[in-house]
Specification:
Elements (H helix, E strand, L loop, with lengths): L23 H9 L9 H13 L4 H5 L8 E4 L7 H5 L3 E4 L1 H14 L2 H13 L4
Antiparallel strand pairs: 1-2
């Protein structure tokens, strides 16, 4: 004799499905301070706008033959609060997906010259 299909118990609508876990980046954002506290001043805003006027397209996308507007002026080396490195740096015009995806991933695993070499490869379209 054939078995009946199993019935899955469902929680009633509105029932709690467990305690939501705080997202990692939200906790780290509180620790690192506001954008202004991290050096992103009116002078940075002016510099960033001027940089993106000169570099209006995402440099990583351009290297891959895509045309995407740049929305972020990215520090090639993370300054991590170092005010000298904040300004004495190289910069890349990026779209948000490139800044928050491959660049963030590279920053999590690379530092210094290795990170700069990775950035340079992205700008010329070399696969990594």
């Amino acid at each position: 004799m054939a078995k009946e299909p199993a019935q899955h118990a469902r929680k009633p609508i509105g029932a709690q499905h467990g305690t939501p876990k705080p997202r990692k980046h939200m906790a780290s954002d509180k620790r690192r301070g506001s954008a202004r506290e991290r050096g992103y001043s009116a002078a940075w805003d002016k510099f960033s706008r001027a940089f993106r006027q000169l570099n209006p397209l995402c440099e990583y996308c351009q290297a891959k033959g895509r045309t995407q507007p740049a929305t972020v002026t990215d520090h090639d080396l993370p300054h991590e609060g170092d005010t000298e490195l904040f300004w004495d740096n190289t910069f890349t015009a990026l779209c948000s997906p490139c800044h928050n995806g491959p660049k963030a991933s590279a920053e999590a695993r690379l530092t210094g010259d290795a990170l700069l070499a990775w950035v340079a490869k992205q700008k010329v379209g070399v696969a990594t």
